[in-house]
Amino acid sequence: MLEASFNQLVNEIRSQLQPDEQFTLTLNCEQSQFIRFNHAKVRQTGTVNDGSLQLVLMHNHRSSYREFPFTGNLECDHQTAQAAIALLREEVPQLPENPYLVLPSGNHISRESHAGKLIAADQVVSTLLPMVSDLDFTGIYAAGSVIRAYADSVGQQHWFDTDSYSLDYSLFTADGQAVKGTLAGSTWDEAAYQSRIEESRAQLSLMSNAPKPIQRGQYRTYLAPAAIAELMTMLSWGGISESSHQQGGSCFSAMRRGEKKLSPKFTLKENFTSGLVPRFNELGEIAPLELALIESGELVNMLTSSATAKEYGLEANGATQGEELRSPEILPGDLDHDAILKTLDTGLYLSNLHYLNWSDRPTGRITGMTRYACFWVEKGEIIAPIENLRFDDSLYQFWGDNLVALTNFQEFIPDIGTYEHRNLGGVLAPGMIVEDFTYTL
């Protein structure tokens, strides 16, 4: 059993510590099934059983780390860990002191296990493909168990495992236009899958029309939850970070100084109640189940790591070292799904965005491109798809004075990254209508 093997390895490492040495040990592990589809056919399939450990050794205000595989075989893992400790003991004394090094402290112990109801591995193809057999359906299905664990020299220990799946797909027209969709969770929902495919089919039929050229300027715009999720990723790039604020780079510093506010319709929080991501960070600290960040347009908290708190004399709130969002939620509004086009009236309907970047982070200005199934709407009716546009606008506008309405429903947009390991979590967001969204190309 992997948990027992991890716990035994932790005890072995603790027993080898020398006076004044401290350590942290983190585990990323997964047992995943991957299937890649193209033209509604299976092009690649396989399973991954993988685990990796990161061991950080701290001594005399210095630290360094080693990463090595986790096999679950105690003898093998113990030998690898011993070799890593020996190398770290040679390396750490040669490094400069870190005045803001945070040592593990506290007595937190936790265990979370979230069993899901996934499609049986041998039934994935027969479940997914019948509904899309007549379409150019391309995408990746990933599912299985993901484990995150932590232990340290002061006795803190955490275990988190969850069953989850994600389906990231695109439907293509004959001339290469595409509609994108995602579906994710811990329990497979056949009805939700059928509904999502039918919605994508409807958008795909509209994509066959000739695209309407759009001149640069400002347009009333609806941004679907997937587009909102892309905007939210920018807040983890020095946006909601306390360290970024202290160094003069945060987009929310103007709010912190009391110079600006967002719309009272806008509320953002970290919400771990879904159990999709672990609450512990790389120091074993536990984040609150819910942490308000922006409440009714007012900034109430920024993500503050222990290192930032130590450097600037503040109080940490369980944030990771990178002070990025882990389980963000934007609260919904009161706009019904069936009223979106009518309320939009005339303007642009954006299903997705990509290639986002800060064009001026201190003023909250973000640039990016429209992507997949974006349309021109007139008098509440979709008229034609649009060619790709570049936008450049400030969050103080689209989440501020220009925010017209948020939908009364939310969608979970998963983090589908698989670089090194399958990522957890995502963004829970509504759609929104904004006035005068700015397009530059």
UniProtKB/TrEMBL annotation:
GO molecular function: metallopeptidase activity
InterPro entries reported in the protein's UniProt record: Metalloprtase-TldD/E_C, TldD/PmbA_sf
Domain Metalloprotease TldD/E C-terminal span(s) in chain numbering: 217-439
Entry coiled-coil feature ranges: none
One annotated GO biological process: proteolysis
Domain of life, per lineage: Bacteria
Name of this protein: Metalloprotease TldD/E C-terminal domain-containing protein
Organism field: Leptolyngbya boryana NIES-2135
